[in-house]
Structures are given as C-alpha cells and as structure tokens.
Amino acid sequence: MSLLDAYKKATNNWDAKKDKVQQSQAIPAGTYEVMLEKTDHPVYKSGWDCLRFDLQVIAGKYTSRHEQIRVSLATKTPKGKAVQEFIISRNIRTIVKLGEMIGMDMKPEYFPDNETDAYEKLAAAFKPYEGKTVQMVITETPSKKDPDKLYRNYDFGPSKTTIETPEANKSGNDNGGSDTTITDDELPF
Fold first, then answer.
1. How many C-beta neighbours within 10 Å does residue 78 have?
2. Could you tell me how far CA 1 lies from the centroid of its own chain?
3. Mean pLDDT of each 10-residue bin along the chain, 189 residues long
4. Cα separation of 157 and 146, whole Å?
5. Helix (H) or strand (E) segment spanning residue 93
6. What is the C-alpha radius of gyration for the chain, rounded to an integer number of angstroms?
7. What are the start-end ranges of the E strands in 60-176?
C-alpha cells in the first residue's frame, strides 16, 4: 500500500475537526479461524486481575489481527458488591468452551475458591495448548443502560483449519536425517 493509499484509508469517513486520532481497530463481529497465541494472568495497576487469552486470526481478511479476551472470575466488585451470578457463569463457560474446543481436559480443580489461584492454574493449564486452532464467533450486544455501548460476546467451535507442524526426523537432528559434521578445515575463519 502506498502512502497515498494509506492516507485515503485513514481519512475516509473521518473528520479531523470532530473525530479522535485514536479510533478502535477492533475486529468486527463475525466468525473467525483463530489460533490461541498466549494465555496469561495479568495484574493491572488498579489491582484488577483476570485470565487473558490472546487469539490471532489465521485466515481471511483479518489474518494476523489479534483479539484479546479478558475473563474475570471475581465474585465481588472493587466496591465489595456481589457480581451477578450470570456474569460469573458466562465467564466460566467461556473458559470451559475454549478449553474443550482446543482439546483441553477441563477439571474442577482449575477453579479453586481464590480467583487469583484459579487464574494461575488456568494459565498454566492452557500453556501447552498455545498454537492450537479454534473457530471464534464474536457478537455484539448493546448495553441496557447505554445502548451506544456494545458488549462483545464470544463463542467457540471446532476449527476448520489445521496448522501443520513438522515432525522430528528419526535421526534426532533437524537437517533431514544427514549427519552434518563440520571440521576446523571447513570453517571460513
């Protein structure tokens, strides 16, 4: 893409006098083939922590774009108010569904009473499955209190794409089975 093409794309339907420079580049609602790139347990400056999934789109128009899903298992808000049960249930189902779709055996012990311990156990349990593919469906629903605010909802299904990984050869080296031994005389220095 030329710089002129980039300029036209960046300023299309954008008013410099009214619009913000930083605009959301979120992947639109839809169905995507994705790869679980990373799972971790971030703790933010505010003290809020979560389980974070970094999913990379591997096919289609948005290939190489990332969607980060932050899932909270908190049962109380920062102000001490109880989190509604349906929110906790939905978040647990999100974790379990993603795990099942990538072939992970979900276990009750991944969900101890302490949410921080749960994040650590889950991040460790998902680690061996990084690189696995899954189909991700993103839908958006308006907030009841503020219809202009959209909530992103996620669902997962089996991937229709497989990523081939090379198998190790039987000789134990990575150069196609030949034994490459270099002598001092063959070195260029």
1. 9
2. 28
3. 75 72 78 97 92 96 92 92 94 97 95 94 97 96 90 94 60 54 70
4. 30
5. helix 85-101
6. 22
7. 66-71, 133-142, 150-158
